[in-house]
Write a structure and sequence with these properties.
The chain has 469 residues and is mainly α. The chain is built from 20 helices and no strands. It is globular. 51% of the residues are buried.
């Protein structure tokens, strides 16, 4: 349950609708679902299994498989990408807090209410955007001080059902609005030209990884908390994928019929969910209650994901340093707050961060995890690596995952991801040279710097040990 709660969040309710709107609707959705089940689900099983197999956080897991030295830097890459992603995820949690306040005040039901003006006034106020970002980080840090079991699992247990009920009610009302069928046509009539565009594939890949949490280090960290008899194949793979897809489709059903019913622009951008749904509530019987229930459920979905994302950094810092858990929580929360200030201040900067780390950082972090599981995991001479992978994945599982999974992880996922990334670079370098080259350069710097840092750290540690001897 904690895994599903961690993976279902703003990626499904906030990011999927606006990314789908910006990329043409049905064609993008088709590519996204294809990559979700071909790459994200097998990859999520692999990442969760890696965490349970090693019992360590992201850097410790890479060390357990690759040994001490520069190659631990791949774990540092995952950690850097995780904190960068959380730095602009926290402001989005702050947006939801702001809308919770207005749902309680009944703002959406006042005469003359204008959804776009409410958003514009919020986005133009640094006090509100920076204040809600600060509140979001403070709440997440506060819950994490109570630990993984008392904080995350208790929150998910009570709030996830509330989200599903509220989202279902909003989707039903949205689907019954006059003109809603145009929204369904937008979602389920593929534009085949968009399917051939490289930007569609790189964005769909980024969304599949973003919404499932693959490559964030979440599954490794949660996997390290699992007991040996917990079911990785079902809990870490299938249930998470079904929950993820269900919430994502509900969000699309809630947003796009209303977008077309109210004559809004599907490609409005990152505020699409916010400016659309607040116009649906006044059309619902008991609208004020549904508005409160929806934004509370939305908040807890995003909040539990935020807890899981931040826990990756906390666990890793605690393992790799002499800091206590309390000090680790405070240190990681402070870093996220500081790095998130530009994204909280400027929606344009948030969009740039999302493009860079969502479409480039996440695939590279995912590749690092998949390659380690597919090509390096296992004792090597007495038992084959494939036997170790399958045995560990299927340990006490209610379903048996066959050899096909190992072949997909080893031979299919890495070349497909690399092909999508190369295809995008080659096709877009002439049209968007700064954004395209910027993403490649950024990822290259993070990768090289991480390897150098871990190599230098281990060499210094070895020198100090010899000096002490």
């Amino acid at each position: 349950m904690a895994m599903v709660g961690a993976m279902v969040g703003s990626g499904n309710i906030w990011r999927l609708p606006y990314i789908t709107g910006e990329n043409g609707g049905g064609g993008f959705l088709l590519v996204y679902l294809f990559l979700l089940y071909l790459i994200a689900v097998p990859g999520l099983m692999a990442e969760t299994m890696l965490g349970r197999y090693t019992g360590r956080g992201v850097i410790g897991s890479f060390r357990s498989i690759l040994g001490e030295g520069r190659w631990e830097g791949f774990g540092l890459v995952v950690l850097i990408v995780n904190i960068a992603l959380m730095s602009y995820y926290a402001p989005v949690v702050g947006w939801i807090l702001y809308y919770i306040g207005h749902s309680l005040l009944g703002t959406f039901f006042q005469p003359g209410f204008a959804a776009q003006q409410l958003w514009t006034a919020f986005a133009a106020s640094p006090v509100l955007t920076l204040g809600t970002h600060t509140l979001a980080v403070a709440l997440i840090g506060g819950v994490l001080l109570f630990g993984i079991r008392d904080g995350i699992e208790r929150t998910v247990k009570w709030m996830f059902p509330a989200l599903v009920i509220a989202l279902l009610a909003v989707a039903i009302r949205s689907l019954t609005l006059s003109g809603a069928t145009a929204g369904l046509a937008f979602l389920f009539t593929p534009d085949w030209n968009s399917v051939t565009r490289p930007s569609t594939w790189i964005t769909a890949l980024g969304q599949a990884l973003f919404s499932t949490g693959l490559g964030w280090g979440i599954a490794v960290t949660y996997g390290s908390y699992l007991r040996k008899h917990d079911d990785v194949a079902l809990g870490g793979g299938l249930f998470t994928a079904v929950g993820n897809t269900s919430i994502g489709l509900l969000a699309l059903f809630a947003v796009f019929p209303a977008v077309f019913a109210f004559g809004l622009e599907p490609a409005a951008g990152s505020n699409l969910t916010f400016i659309t749904l607040v116009q649906v509530f006044p059309k619902m019987a008991g609208g004020p209650i549904w508005a409160i229930l929806f934004f509370l459920g939305f908040f807890f979905a995003a909040f539990t994901s935020g807890l899981a994302i931040t826990e990756v950094g906390v666990t890793t810092v605690q393992e790799e340093t002499r800091l206590s858990r309390k000090q680790s929580v405070l240190g990681v929360s402070l870093a996220i707050w500081l790095l998130g200030l530009p994204s909280a201040y400027s929606a344009e900067f948030l969009g740039l961060m999302d493009f860079m780390f969502g479409n480039w950082g996440l695939p590279v972090a995912t590749l690092a995890i998949i390659v380690v599981v597919g090509w390096k995991m296992g004792p090597g001479w007495l038992l084959t690596p494939e036997w170790v992978r399958l045995t560990e994945l299927n340990r006490n599982s209610d379903i048996y995952v066959g050899r096909w999974w190992s072949l997909i992880v080893q031979y299919l996922i890495p070349p497909i991801m690399l092909a999508i990334m190369v295809y995008f670079v080659v096709s877009n370098i002439g049209q968007q040279p700064i954004e395209t080259a910027g993403g490649v350069v950024l990822v290259g710097i993070i990768l090289v710097a991480s390897l150098v840092i871990m190599s230098a750290t281990r060499q210094r540690g070895a020198s100090q040990t010899l000096g002490g001897d």
